[in-house]
Amino acid sequence: MPLPHYKLAILITLVVVGVFLQLSGLVDYAQLIVLTRKYADQWWLAVLLVLIQAIMFTFATAGSSMIWVTGVLFTPVTSTLVITAGTTLGGISAYAFSAHLSEQWVTKVEQSTIYRVLQKESGFLLLFAMRLMPGFPHSVINYSAGILKTRLTVFISSAMLGTAAKSYLYSVLIYNATSPGTMTDSIDISTVWPLLALSLLTLSAVFLQRLLKRK
């Protein structure tokens, strides 16, 4: 669905302002990041970010985008814990909330490819592989699993392990790229290949498992 004109205008304006402030030297982003990281040891900040993610995932908004906040503020390990907790809690909440979706939303979810795949196979390996995939829509997984009544233990464990593996890699990349002295280094997109490889291997195991069951 395309962005409304006013939202697109706001987005472009923010990008232009950000680039202008950086190039003009009016804002030292390296110093700003150092300053904000001084508050990262406040326990309530991590809890707040977990709750924000949980709410975002419950209502099918881009909770995964919070990695860009946690990856900057916290060390990779702490960022991974925050993202994993928020994604898992949000997943459980969305799983439960799926019972209250409108008929229009249920129809929309049921028409998705993810739903049709999970309808045939909703084991740990497949859910784990989906969580690992870069850019995969977590909200559709959550709602689909809720509508299909996927076993909660399988749903939670796959969400925790898959999210932890992916968020740790992203957290390392973001933290290193935004640390003083390395901010000019770009994030190498090729580093997502380990996630893709692990995800594809897991999917291969799922298909092999299904073939063996047929024999």
Could you characterize what this model shows?
The chain has eleven helices and no strands. Helix 8 packs parallel to helix 10. It folds into two domains: 38 residues; 173 residues, no CATH class. About 2% of the residues have low confidence. With 215 residues, the protein is mainly alpha-helical.
Tally of helical runs? 11
Main beta sheet: none
Q: How much helix, percentage-wise, in residues?
A: over 70%
Total strands: the figure is: 0
Order of helices and strands: HHHHHHHHHHH
How many domain modules? 2
Low-confidence stretches: 183-187
What share of residues are in beta strands? under 5%
In terms of structural class, how would the helical and strand content be classed?
A: mainly alpha
- Shape summary: globular
Rg calc: 19 Å
Determine the N-to-C terminus distance: 44 Å
Please tell me the overall pLDDT: 77
Can you tag this structure with a few keywords?
215 residues, mainly alpha, 2 domains, 73% helix, globular
Summarize the structure.
The chain is mainly α and 215 residues long. It folds into two domains: 1-38; 42-214, no CATH class.
Topology:
Layout: H1 5-24, H2 29-37, H3 43-58, H4 67-73, H5 76-97, H6 103-110, H7 113-120, H8 124-132, H9 138-148, H10 152-177, H11 193-214
Helix pairs in contact: 3-5, 4-5, 4-10, 5-9, 5-10, 7-9, 8-10, 8-11
